[in-house]
Design goal:
Length: about 90
Amino acid sequence: MVGRDEAELIGLQAAAWLAANDELLPVFLGATGASVEDFRTGLSDPGFQGAVLDFLLMDDAWVRAFCDEAGLTYDLPFQARQHLPGGGEVHWT
């Protein structure tokens, strides 16, 4: 089971993976309206890490690519998301 500290570590790993991905980073920035500077300053914010995981979880291929590179099981990003701000909320609309 993932705890809060491990969730933040996974969120930070996901942000680092996204920052190194020249194809996906602009998509994330465009979807969120964040700037590169916002991205840099948000890295230590658990809420921002949750937003990165939300983005990552939109596509199974992204989850697999991240987890394969990070050496994580495919279910860990979802588990980590549940422990970061906003992760327990479900929005059906």
